[in-house]
Structures are given as structure tokens and as C-alpha cells.
Amino acid sequence: MILPIVGYGHSVLRIKTNDIDNSYPNIQQLIDDMFETMYNANGVGLAAPQINLSISVLVIDANPFKEDYPEGEGFKRAMINPEILETNGEDEKFEEGCLSLPGINEVVIRKNKVKVRYFDEKFEEHIEELYGIRARVFQHEFDHLNGKVFTDRLSNMRRAFLKKKLNDIANNKVHPAYKMIK
Ligand code: NI
After folding, report:
1. 67 CB-contact burial (10 Å; exposed 0-12 / middle 13-18 / buried 19+)
2. Is 141 one of the annotated active-site residues of the chain?
3. Which of 16, 78, 83, 93 is in the most buried spot, having the most CB atoms within 10 Å?
4. For residue 47, how far is its CA from the centre of ligand 1 (angstroms)?
């Protein structure tokens, strides 16, 4: 089922999410719905707050990047209660966008390696080293679980420049091809 996506300005995007355990009902259905919602909007990642659920769940599919970033191939994951164990590597610039901030694309600096721990939809634990585009998409989605969006990582000057665009999204004046809720 395709779910509506929460737009910038909604308070759920600003709350730190709660971990869940294996008593959470219908987790497989939720994850299927998150992937379907993400693909419908041509996204490469989606975090639960973006569908108005304040729980620590995210989905990623970086396969669309594989032409330009070979490490994107095969990186399709559902991650429950993810944690960053280590952040390494170099600062890297990359132009990001977000389904909750349609029409905004800005260069964000992040580290290009992270070691993460998470549970999959069967609640099996994984520890994985992510690099390049894998680290990029993960860190963007992980920010959502901590109440952050990518524009928070821009300079004050850049954010001031975007203020009208951000206000327009918050005031429901931006209408992408997918369904949004305020
Ligand atoms: Ni996002």
C-alpha cells in the first residue's frame, strides 16, 4: 500500500524515534509498504517518520545509483533500530534531496564510511561497514530517526536562501507527483 509522505514542517520529522522489538505488529507489511511508497516517489530511502510513525525503521534501495556509484548495486536494506558504531573516512560532498522536501537539492558534507548495527525485518542482527553512496544514503535516513533533515546540515546562509522554499513546503504549497500530508 502506498502511504502519504509527511512534508517538511510536520512535527513528527522533529522527534527522535523509539526503538521497536519483535512484538511490533505486522512489521513485514510495514516494510513492504515503506518500499512501495518509496519506489512510487522515485526515492532511494525512506524513514518511518516520513510516513508519520515515530519508530526506528528505515528502508533503502541504492540500486538506482549503480551506474555512477558501483557500490550502490545490491544495497537494498530494511533496517530496524539502526545505530552508528563508528564514523570514518573522509568528508565528501554530495547533492542530496528528500521526499519530505520536494524541489530542494543541496550539497551536504558527510563522512564516506560508517560502521552500523541494525536488525532486519526478521529481527536478526547485522553489523555492516558502509562506504560511498551506501554510507551517504544511510546517514541521510538515519538523521530522520533523530529528528533531523538534510537542510539542518547546511550553512546558515544557505538555509536563509532556502527559507521561502521551505516555508512553501510547510504551508502545503508544493505538490509533487506523490501524495503528501501536512
Ligand atoms: Ni529524507
Report:
1. exposed
2. yes
3. 78
4. 7
